[in-house]
Amino acid sequence: MDDKFYNRVGGDRISSRQVDELIGLARGLAADGSINKAEVEFLQKWLAAGLHVASLRA
Questions:
Q1: DSSP string covering 32-56, please?
Q2: What is the signed CA dihedral for 22, 27, 30, 32, rounded to 10 degrees?
Q3: How far apart are CA 34 and CA 21, in angstroms?
Q4: Is 37 exposed, middle or buried (0-12, 13-18, 19+ CB in 10 A)?
């Protein structure tokens, strides 16, 4: 079986997991009521990596 098959079968589950992870990250970043530069940079890197993964599945 090839990557295209696995992406079709597991793509929705992976996307759902990424959304759940993003929600957790957002809650964690906002938990103390203050977001600093390091947190913003971490979130930017996480989002960029997520876009890269999403483009591989397309």
A1: TS---HHHHHHHHHHHHHHHHHHHH
A2: -140
A3: 20
A4: exposed
- Taken as a whole, the chain contains a residue count of 58
Entry pTM: 0.64
Compute the Cα dihedral for 11, 12, 13, 19 and give only its sign.
Answer: positive
Q: What is the pLDDT of residues 2-48, one digit of tens each?
A: 667 666 666 666 677 888 888 999 999 999 999 999 999 999 999 88
